[in-house]
Amino acid sequence: MTDVDLASRTVGGAVVAASDESFGFKERLVDPSEPAFVPGTYDLRGEVVDGWETRRHAGPDGDWAIIRLGAPGRLHTVDVDTRFFSGNHPTACAVDACTLDRTQDPAGPGVAWTTVVESTVLKADSHNLLAVRDHRRWTHLRLRLQSDGGVARMRAYGEVVPDPALWSDVTVEVSGLEQGGRVEWCSDSFYSSAGVLVAPNRPHNMGDGWETRRRRDIGPDTHDAVIISFAVPADLRRIEIDTSYFVFNASAEVSVLGSRSRPDREHGWGRVAFDVPVLPRTRLIADSRQVFPVDARAVAALRVQAYPDGGIARVRALGVPTEEGLAILRRRWERS
């Protein structure tokens, strides 16, 4: 649960240019939803596809699409998802990356692209997971197809590298996905993933939240839990617990504990002590955004405990990075 899709439209990703999109729109590549396909459904472009699909006969250079990452950062894996494209999937692809200023044109002739995934044969109707070895911070990706064809989605999994200049002397949503916040673990995700708790957008329905199975072993301390880590330690000022759209199944109560520690390589988060009181056990209102003032210093991660089970849309922790935290951010930025 640690890597984030840096290209997703959820965090502001966009497809800014493509060589062709005759059969399927390029913007579909970064759609956060799963691809779907209804055979035999046609419009004026042909059979309707949920993905980016180019015309036949692209020529020797193949087709390409350029994606602006919504949250620039270090890449670990790229998923070139060809689901529902079988007789029309590309033969192979490569992935390039670059780092640009906000107003630079990524399709311009002077862009210095670095190949981060060499040309790789693609499987039809499949996830194609491609490892990225160059872990510098990137702002844009270019998907280069060896041929024409169709790709349903492109996911760019990695870690956000925040700009320290944007954190200086301001209160930051340190838990937010765009700022390097990550859901590291949860006790249960039976109905929906806990990963959406740190999404930057407002929830749009009950499926856009964290919902666990109904607990039947209810006692005074029965609860589900989720661990959210921050990019760097921060002094917390506000905690928001949003139960929007959870009308009849919202968590009844919540408590929040903090940790000043990080996991070691051997034991992970299972051995980390959450011993900093952030928010005492508090009654929640269904279908509501609820903000609580807090004062917790130098917190690096949160354990949010939902009683007796989980029905929460978003968790937002707002605070000011510590001096040590800002120093860590600057070193990370300089290395990237």
From TrEMBL:
It catalyses: allantoate + H2O = (S)-ureidoglycolate + urea. GO terms for biological process: allantoin catabolic process; purine nucleobase metabolic process. Pathway: Nitrogen metabolism; (S)-allantoin degradation; (S)-ureidoglycolate from allantoate (aminidohydrolase route): step 1/1. Residues 12-160, 180-320 form the Allantoicase domain. The keyword Zinc does not apply. Its EC number is 3.5.3.4. Pfam families: Allantoicase. One of its GO terms (molecular function) is allantoicase activity. Keywords: Hydrolase, Purine metabolism. NCBIfam families: allantoicase. HAMAP family: Allantoicase. Belongs to the allantoicase family. This is Probable allantoicase. It comes from Mycolicibacterium cosmeticum. The lineage of its organism: Bacteria, Bacillati, Actinomycetota, Actinomycetes, Mycobacteriales.
